[in-house]
């Protein structure tokens, strides 16, 4: 019984081991300011990983996250001097529309990998076109509160990440929509025959992913104070890596947002400690690539074991 509980919660054991190891490697890591910085920096990928986890559970992928962040940053930077509410409204509606386009083509039988890879290019091109291929400074200072403000000592961006994690955990575990998301990831044809409207569920999943990208994009632009059409490259791979580290199945039907949350923190600890040790960004990419390969390997093994059972 105890060993089964340990296996079921192994991600938290890994998180504890990584945390203790990082504390031992660097004294600077142990400071409260660095830990708060770790959470703040992880919040962007953390929010993206929520949407990525939900799409992965359906048996899909979303490779458009990085480009969506760039597009949000540009839209918000350009429109916020005119109207803050209008800027956020146009940005979220635009991303939801693009997310629904992703779902439309996935529902037509095209591979999610191909569809969202194409959308990655479309969203990036839109960001470059709208901005004239230039960075756009933000003069509206209140937006920085999202990234740097605190409530009871907790950064606002971290609170947003926590609230979204709890909200969508409740959706997945306690609503019909959540049950349907898991069902179509396990077997879409059986779900269809049982009366689940598979296409509608996919629209919902990709729309949620787009909304998460919008929120992450707002945190991103509030942190930088500038809209950058050519940045946030590779963020989609980070969000996938965190979901996989958290045990979300690459083949659909399995995953928990609480475990993804732990996966994001493990990924964040590794990045943070590499930065504190002065490891170059090139070698950091190598380390992260190896982490993804190891995570995919164990994820695939676990999925095969489930199939055998």
Descriptive key words:
309 residues; mainly alpha; two-stranded antiparallel sheet; 14 helices; 4 strands; 3% strand; globular
Radius of gyration, Cα only, in angstroms? 19 Å
Number of strands: 4
Please trace the helix and strand order, writing H or E for each element: HHHHHHEHEEHHHHEHHH
Structural class: mainly alpha
- Termini separation: 19 Å
Poorly predicted sequence stretches spanning 5 or more consecutive residues: none
Biggest beta sheet summary: 2 strands, antiparallel
Q: In which order are the strands of the major sheet placed?
A: 1-4
Give the overall pLDDT as a whole number: 90
| Envelope shape | globular
Query: Which range does the strand content fall in?
Result: under 5%
Helix content: over 70%
What's the total helix number?
A: 14
Write the layout of secondary structure elements.
Elements: H1 2-8, H2 10-25, H3 32-57, H4 65-79, H5 84-107, H6 112-131, E1 136-137, H7 144-148, E2 150-151, E3 154-155, H8 156-174, H9 176-186, H10 188-193, H11 198-224, E4 226-227, H12 235-245, H13 257-276, H14 281-308
Antiparallel strand pairs: 1-4, 2-3
Helix pairs in contact: 2-13, 3-8, 3-9, 3-11, 3-12, 3-13, 4-5, 4-6, 4-11, 5-6, 5-11, 8-9, 9-11, 12-13
């Amino acid at each position: 019984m105890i060993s089964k509980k340990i296996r079921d919660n192994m991600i938290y054991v890994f998180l504890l081991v990584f945390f203790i190891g990082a504390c031992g490697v660097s004294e600077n890591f142990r400071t409260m300011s660095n830990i708060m910085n770790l959470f703040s920096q992880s919040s962007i990928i953390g929010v993206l990983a929520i949407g990525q986890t939900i799409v992965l559970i359906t048996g899909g992928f979303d490779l458009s996250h990085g480009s969506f962040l760039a597009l949000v940053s540009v839209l918000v930077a350009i429109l916020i001097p005119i109207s803050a509410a209008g800027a956020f409204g146009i940005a979220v509606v635009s991303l939801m529309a693009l997310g629904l386009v992703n779902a439309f083509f996935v529902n037509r039988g095209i591979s999610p990998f191909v569809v969202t890879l194409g959308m990655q290019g479309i969203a990036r091109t839109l960001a470059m076109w709208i901005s004239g291929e230039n960075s756009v400074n933000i003069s509206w200072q209140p937006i920085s509160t999202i990234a740097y403000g605190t409530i009871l000592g907790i950064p606002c961006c971290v609170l947003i990440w926590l609230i979204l994690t709890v909200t969508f955990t409740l959706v997945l575990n306690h609503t019909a929509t959540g049950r349907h998301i898991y069902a179509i990831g396990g077997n879409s044809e059986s779900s269809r025959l049982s009366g689940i409207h598979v296409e509608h569920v996919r629209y919902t999943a990709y729309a949620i992913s787009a909304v998460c990208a919008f929120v992450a994009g707002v945190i991103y632009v509030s942190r930088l104070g500038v809209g950058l059409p050519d940045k946030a490259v590779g963020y989609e791979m980070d969000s996938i890596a965190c979901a996989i580290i958290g045990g979300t199945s690459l083949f659909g039907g399995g995953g928990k947002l609480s475990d993804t949350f732990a996966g994001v923190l493990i990924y964040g600890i590794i990045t943070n400690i590499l930065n504190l040790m002065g490891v170059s960004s090139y070698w950091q990419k190598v380390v992260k690539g190896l982490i993804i390969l190891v995570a995919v390997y164990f994820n695939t093994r676990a999925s095969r074991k489930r199939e055998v059972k």
